[in-house]
Amino acid sequence: MRRKIYTVNSLYSVFCEALGRRREDANKAPRVDPALFVSDTLPADRRFMATVGNGYLGTRVYDKVMHVNGVYNGEAGECHRADVPSPAGAELNVAGAGAEDTSFTLNTRTGTFSCVIQSGKFRVAQRIFAHRTHVHLLALMVEAERLGNYTEPVVITINSTFTPHSQDIEFVSGPDFMGAKYIHGQTLTPEVKGGRKLSVHLLWTPLPGFLRLEPGEHSRSWAFLTAVAETEEGARRAYTQGLSLAQAGTLYPSHMEAWAWLWGQSRLEVTGSQHLSQALFGGLYYLMSSLPQAHTPDFLFTGLSPGGLPNGGRGQDYHGHVFWDQEIWMFPIVVMFRPDLAVKLLQYRVQTLGPARDIARQQGYQGAKYPWESAGTGTEVSDADIYGKREIHINGDISFAFRQYFYLTQDLEFFRNCGGWEVVVSIAEFWSSRVTWNPEEGCYDIKGARGAGLGGRGVTEFLFSVEGVMPPDEYQPNINNSVYTSVVAKYSLQFAVELGTRLSKPVRPEWEEIAEKLKVSFDPERQYHPEYDGYTPGTDVKQADAVLLGFPLMYPMNPEVRRNDLEIYEGATDPDGPAMTWSMFAIGWLELKATARAGQLLEKCYKNIQEPFKVWSESADGSGAVNFLTGTGGFLQFPLFGCTGIRVRKDCLYFDPVLLDNISELRITGISYLGNKLDFELTKELFTVVLTAAPGPQVNLLEAVLCGSGESQGETLGKFPYSTQSLIIIPPKPQTIINWSFSTHDCLWDIAVRNWLPRSPTNIQSIHFTVCSVKRFGTSS
């Protein structure tokens, strides 16, 4: 068959069509933008107000307080995010306008909340945003314009509850600066006894009681800025920059531009379900607005908490502490799209390694034992000892995140010179001192607290009191051999050996033996994984626990065992449990191609999304933490890892795509692998992968290989078995011709791509392919 030759324009059209970027029919009704959440009322429960943030500061819209990264007040279990007064929490009224003239919008594309009051005579718009790049700035902007021939004054009343005081910070007034008011102070109580109190400096534009658009003025705008920093100099610098941008008319445009770039890097989009589409935009927005910029030299990021930066004050939303939620529920989304931001989460664990080592030593173990709850200093801040002492799986969760980052980036520099290795090896040292040799079963157990040293054959045994461990299923506070804990411990030891070999670092020889012989509970008769020693099927389970072995842990098992795990634990799991649970079951059923059952479980997740601004609650009835990023992260993993079947393996990315019946198309923009950026599109007929950016002149080549045959052809198209439905992407040898071969539910497509690498060093922003042929097997093209 003769190959079809494409011109540049026809080539562009081919890929635009493949990516679903067809020109819209001008006669069609405009599509509702799923990224805009519009309402004519605010939620009755103000906990479910939209939030704005940028990784340094965050606030609920119309709240009188905001929170700042790393600023906590209170010692140990009393530690919580310190309330900082927010001048931007003001609401507007306009004389002559009623509630029917008012609408509220969270624009997730621009990271902006707006209130628009419009009658036939005037239009008044209020915008509130935390500037994406000038992270010390919180802005409130008001615009007013006349409509028609209306000539009377437009009077805007500003209703503000702001006071320059805080229950957590002792503020004092300072001199005005460039028309701004100024207060500064320190937190009342340090996180650790005798520790440092934290400083906060706040500058803000005073808010008047009302604004006026005078007769003769067609339109007018006002900008009210808030600048917050750790020092007076930092606050002044931020405020000065904000004023300059506002005067130049670029304050808001520069913020929008930054958000547009952010969305250009990372998107999850679907066709066929408006509900799911909105949930994806909302989930990604709330997660991204809690993350900092990749380069933030003036502050250390102190991690992602379940409620994000806007929440976590005294007695609220887990006090703004960092848990395993960061590594297991949020990190997988961040690292797949933005490894440069994901490393910020890992750096938090690096900078808190010292306190983790102290905890291990105090409890009688080697290495590092990370706290169940941590804040700014990295010490244990849980308000109940039982969690800090028993929910030790957090150590394995952290190591697992470090492993995922390494497999996706091969960033040896981070592990060699930036503290990554020290975290990995310290966690392995902890596990090796935490296990106990069980001579009856010939395996290592994870049971209770013990003295320092390695328990095993040929090593001195130490007496210990059996306290047990607490698994993710927190209904069980005192059990032995949690299957989840054992697997993450096993992985921690194996990864330390693997990484040590790559870095030429010494590792303890017994780690491999411990990992191999660590007990991972399995019932050979019922062919399932008991959650812990003595578990009886049907016993109530709080949340996803043993089912996490299949995903995200990818512990080896056959489909029968995977199905049995799902069946047994789905029926036992609390229907009112935390929000992230059901997405994990849904992913499991997608692995088994049970799309109807996966869809039913996904529907349960929607109950945790509170209207009108798509704010997640921990529980379906609205109780628990709000802006619950843990649930958000779990939900986002469904399309990213469930529908695509993406699995991060040591030597490749693995794909096994499947769509729900009500989704006709899934588009994923900006997957990052070995420095390359990949876009994916999945329809009922076609799975398309496009390389959109490479890391530089020394490009990491990628090769696509069908799993069924293992073939990767050169000059000619590969002819792979019709039944093959999975794909891997690997780094091949240099100069290899790339064959992209993709399968779907009922057919196999093959796209051969060649001559795709530039021959001279250039600044690569995108790579345009020369397509030799596209065909469906069994047909002519």
UniProtKB/TrEMBL annotation:
What are the residue boundaries of the Glycoside hydrolase family 65 central catalytic domain, all occurrences included? 311-451, 464-536
The EC number of this protein is 3.2.1.107
Q: Which GO terms describe its molecular function?
A: carbohydrate binding; protein-glucosylgalactosylhydroxylysine glucosidase activity
Please give the InterPro entries that the UniProt record associates with this protein.
6-hairpin_glycosidase_sf, 6hp_glycosidase-like_sf, Gal_mutarotase_sf_dom, Glyco_hydro_65_M
**A Gene Ontology biological process annotation?**
carbohydrate metabolic process
> Record's GO cellular component, any one?
cytosol
Swiss-Prot/TrEMBL keywords:
Glycosidase, Hydrolase
Look up the domain of life of the source. Answer: Eukaryota
Catalytic activity, reaction form: (5R)-5-O-[alpha-D-glucosyl-(1->2)-beta-D-galactosyl]-5-hydroxy-L-lysyl-[collagen] + H2O = (5R)-5-O-(beta-D-galactosyl)-5-hydroxy-L-lysyl-[collagen] + D-glucose
**What does it do?**
Catalyzes the hydrolysis of glucose from the disaccharide unit linked to hydroxylysine residues of collagen and collagen-like proteins.
Q: Which family does the UniProt entry place this protein in?
A: Belongs to the glycosyl hydrolase 65 family.
Return the protein name: Protein-glucosylgalactosylhydroxylysine glucosidase
Q: Which organism is it from?
A: Callorhinchus milii (Ghost shark)
Give the organism's phylogenetic lineage: Eukaryota, Metazoa, Chordata, Craniata, Vertebrata
